[in-house]
Amino acid sequence: MFLCFLQSAYLSWSSDPEARRNARSYILFGGLLLALLTISVFTNSVFLEFMWIDHRDTLGGPLGFLASFSSVWWQTLGTASTQVTNFLGDGLLMYRCYVIWNTRWSILVFPFILYLGSIAMAMIMLVQSALPGSDFFRGKTVDYGVPWAALSVSLNVTLTALITLRILLARRAIKQFQVSDKSFGVYFSVAAMVIESSLPFSLLGLIFAVTYGKNLDIGPAFLFTWATFAALSPQFIIFRVATGRAWTRDVASDLSAHSDIVFRHTTQNLESVELSTAVTSHMESGSSEEIKGQKQVVI
User: Fold this and answer.
1) Model pLDDT for residues 205-231, shown as the tens digit of each residue
2) Buried b / exposed e along 130-160 (16+ C-beta atoms within 10 A)
3) I need a surface site. Which of 21, 119, 168, 182 has the fewest CB within 10 A?
4) What is the pLDDT of residues 106-148, one digit of tens each?
5) DSSP H/E element including 264
6) Residue 102 φ/ψ, nearest 5 degrees
7) For this UniProt entry, which segments traverse the membrane (predicted)?
């Protein structure tokens, strides 16, 4: 992730002033995510070292240490940094959905409700997990953690579906109307759909939600992986922005304009065909009536 951030920053600052100005906020955002992930990884690494190496002789072994010391203050700090990373990543994904759907606010009504719900449940869970004797993976914390995971994953899946749907519809429209401009191809590739929609993050979130809700021992492993992708997936999007291959408002507007122009052109052609068909039919019916009239006169 650190190398991805450095590469994005280098590409951004070495580009032209306008592109640099547009990507500046993304780079700062990526730096914040990197700092939060560093805190999370450091605290979890220290905790795992204590759990598996330094304090293996704790009553109950490593799992006993996990149950007894998961509410220590620096572990709570790591949990908080992970949750803030998740909030920021979800916020960026919502903004990307807003941009890709050509700034249509109505698309974000339901995701925004899920977003507020996930933040509320995460704050309650964080307070509960910080209480002495609390365990992040057992007890009351899970009662708040499962709704938080469900809301957060539902938000990710919803945004992923919306972004993927928009890209597929735009690609279908361009192909259907046979637009010859190949400059849009980079926005319809498989990589674009996977990265712009944060598909790996959503899939890992589904697995984590199931394992966490069922209190499976493998749940912590998926939590750490999911938390890492909460910071890594936005970095991939930022990298595409820095390389000029990400969707922007101008791209979404251009795609809508292309679709509208070609749609109007196609509609006008269809109307012309229908009009010419009607005129031809009318002329043919008139000719038939004239021929019948001539036959009657001859008789």
Assistant:
1) 999 888 888 888 788 888 888 988 999
2) beeebbbbeeebbebbbbbbbbbbbbbbbbb
3) 182
4) 999 999 999 999 999 999 999 988 888 777 777 788 888 889 9
5) helix 249-298
6) 60, 50
7) 26-53, 107-128, 148-169, 190-212, 218-239
